[in-house]
Amino acid sequence: FQAEDGIRDRSPSRGLGDVYKRQVYASVAAGAHGICYYWYNANKEAGCQWVADTWAEIAILNRQLQLLAPWIGVGFPVDLSAKTPDKLWVKTVAAGTDALLVVMINRQYRSSPAGFTSTPLAQTPVELVLPAGFTVASAVSIEADGPQAIAVTQAGPTARFNTGALEVGRLVLLTRRSDLLDRLQRRWNGLQR
Predict the structure, then answer these.
(1) Is 151 exposed, middle or buried (CB count within 10 Å of its CB: 0-12, 13-18, 19+)?
(2) Residue 190 neighbours by CB distance under 10 Å
């Protein structure tokens, strides 16, 4: 990815992490199995606080992708019916035979030379019509500080959950396996920081 050099928050410095996060999440939703970052002017701007901030945010993104690698690596986009407010973009990825990755991106953002800004969403409802026979046994949101269980209700093929506070985007893994949170937490703890 290459983000525009002029798009960054100047005060306080947040780097380009939010811009990259949107791009990475959209790529995963489109079926990407790998991510490559491209930064043209990094040497010239070395020492700038936003450069350090951006790489710190990319490290968090990479850790999330490493955590989900077994699912992303075999995943492919599927078009499931989703009912959400227009403010939220939702796509799904079939992740193996027992999981669905739900990719959500806040559509209320603006990128300009003055910076990246978004209007946070709070407790936005998501309703998905799941494939026939898919019963959610557990659901986990992949946060910057690790996997967190989320509540999902299911009536027939329709699953419902809330996004929680959503600045830029969120990845949620739905699975038929009841041990998902423990499995992801062990994996998260073993990843390089």
Answers:
(1) exposed
(2) 9
